[in-house]
Amino acid sequence: MPNSLYVTLIGIFILTIWIIWNTIYHRKKITVMTGMMISMVLGMVVGLTIGVILGILLAGDLFSSTLLAMIIGIAAGFLAGLPIGLMAILDGALAGMMGGMMGAMLGEMIATEHQDTLIRVMFLLFIGMIIILYQMMQQEFIKSKALVNHPLVMIILFVLFIVGYNQLGSLIPSSHSLKNSNNNHSMSANNLVIQADEYSFSPSHTKIMAGERVTITLDNIGEVEHDLEIKGMITEMMESGTSHIHQKDNTIVHVHSMAGEKQEISFTPLTPGKYRFTCTIPGHVESGMFGIIEVISS
User: Fold this and answer.
1) N or C: which end of the chain has fewer CB within 10 A?
2) What is the pLDDT at residue 239?
3) Is the pLDDT of residue 134 over 90?
4) Cα pseudo-dihedral 287, 252, 274, 199, rounded to 10
5) Are 202 and 195 in contact, with CB atoms under 8 Å apart?
């Protein structure tokens, strides 16, 4: 895992503990309404931010990323609300659960080329929300006169952190699927079969070699038509006489299959990277028909 991602995760952990500690330490001064606000905001931003990161790292396994993000978000909201009472606990836990669900879905669906940027934006938004939350706590019950707690000082420190943080390297590891390779990866030098059903692809995460010709066979085992489209991948397309294969340009790979049919398309991927493939039939991608294809250097 890249050091920049470690910095991000450690930063989220430290700031979360900081807010929870202040809530525990000042619990006798906190009203129920203020406690509910603290637990709700913390649960939501932690669940959302962690959800995005897990959705990207566990691409193709939306169940696992959603479940883990929900657990972490609920834990953050629960711990922040625990010193206040049941209402704050309920508010924080529900907010954490919702944030985890939304974050995981966003991380899963974001295009590969925007993943690094999205994590950076979400982390900086997380810090910004924590600063605003702390300033509310400062006005309501902390009332510290320390210079570091002044809003202007916090803003300056935040800006300096942004400058330094953006100098770090890539946040995305070279291979970020943490699933069992036997269940989620299909590696072949020349041929790749992807099954389409209602409404999923199998495998949903696979690898191919850059610079080598590959044939993708779309095996539609479902009861309705499906297609498979990869955008943004630079390729050399192979000619085919099959009417169901549509050659749009060298950055779009598209193959279409009716129910019970197998259709294939051949091409040579030229640029390494991670690319999202989807079913473009209306409503299908929203139902979960998407995956990741990774082009690796030969």
Assistant:
1) C
2) 55
3) yes
4) 20
5) yes
Q: Are residues 69 and 191 in the same domain?
A: no
Q: What angle do CA 212, 215, 217 make, to 5 degrees?
A: 155
- Best CA proximity match to 213, nearest among 191, 229, 233: 191
What integer best gives the mean pLDDT of the chain?
86
What's the CA gap between 57 and 173, in Å, rounded?
8
Average pLDDT over residues 268-297: 89
Q: Are residues 150 and 219 in the same domain?
A: no
To 10 degrees, the CA torsion angle through 180, 185, 189, 190? 150
Nearest-angstrom CA–CA distance, 139 and 81: 19
Q: Are residues 24 and 143 both part of a single domain?
A: yes
pTM as predicted: 0.63
Residue 13 sits at the vertex; the CA angle it makes with 146 and 133, to the nearest 5 degrees, is 45
Flag whether pLDDT at 238 surpasses 80: no
pLDDT at 175 over 60: no
Together in a domain, 136 and 208: no
Q: Would you call 281 helix, strand, or coil by DSSP?
A: coil
